[in-house]
Amino acid sequence: MKITGVQIYEVKPRWIFCKVETDEGVSGWGEMVSGTKTRTVVEGARELSQRIVGRDPFEIERIWQELHRSFFRGGPINGTIVSGLEMALWDIKGKALGVPVWQLLGGKARDRVRVYSWIGGDRPSDVANGAADRLAKGFRAVKMNATEELHYVDTYDKVQQVVDRVESIRSACGNEIEIGIDFHGRVHKPMAKVLAYALAPYHPMFIEEPVLPENWESFDDISREVPIPIATGERLYSRWEFKRLFVQGAVDIIQPDVSLCGGILEMRKIIAMAEAFDMAAAPHAPYGPIALAATLQVDACSPNVFIQEQSLGIHYNQGFDLLDFVKNKEVFQYSDGYVDVPSGPGLGLEIDEEKVKAVSAEGLVWRNPSWKNYDGTIAEW
User: Where do the domains of the chain lie, and which CATH numbers do they carry?
Assistant: First the structure.
């Protein structure tokens, strides 16, 4: 079997799909992150994909090493391109052998995967009703953005607003639901400690990205200040960037993104490394259906994954949602806050390619919001 070509599709609301084709008619699907540089990722994917045409799609590790180990390696652009192509190769291999990808990664370690749902939007609001709605639908865990713009040192009334929102969830749902609170890198070290300390009485499931990953040394300070598990990792590429977190030992939960960190096998390696350091994993997956399906393959065989992000109904999915491009919609059927381990060959998805082509023809322009503080300085989104 040889790779004959790669098709790249830009898909609303903010996804990039790739289809790797072979001379035996078996094709595989992958997904890349558009971020704020859709054109750059698409053109880079078309350039890099030429290096795998004519290759054996089963040689996933060899191809990955060649694509990753360029002179300038890593980074979000190359990281997401390599990730998308890699997961498509696993899809091909699983389909050709007639087994799910998790079967090729050592077999499953669980029967189902716990999932959580997003509430509240970019500027969090009405979170109590959102949590109550998810609870009624069977979810037992939600995640929300903590705050809007926050300066290096800001007013306590903004901290109180966050506390009030979390308290409203506890008032509406009691302890029946767990709450992940995403600081989203919007909070700087001086306020991160204040905010985390104020939230501790409400027993969050975790606080996510309390500071940006480049300020990793601050995780030590925050972990000593508050008894809340710290989660991070969605912006990191490959196991080498995670290595610092493992050695430091301050982070409790890692959140690699299969569409960014290097793909399926790289995420499996990262999560296995975390297991050796007695750390949990809750993989990042707020994008499209292919990325989520690929993530579930790793979840299936990773015992330290305790919960999975999923993006059905997330506030970014304007116009289209995960199931719109999937024929076998039952693959993302949630019950009592869980999803079954995928059983179909490859990634387990049947992609509606005609719809993908039609939507892709409309083009894609997606940019994250640009925020400013009260004094005109740039605020982290």
Answer: 3-100 (3.30.390.10), 103-346 (3.20.20.120)
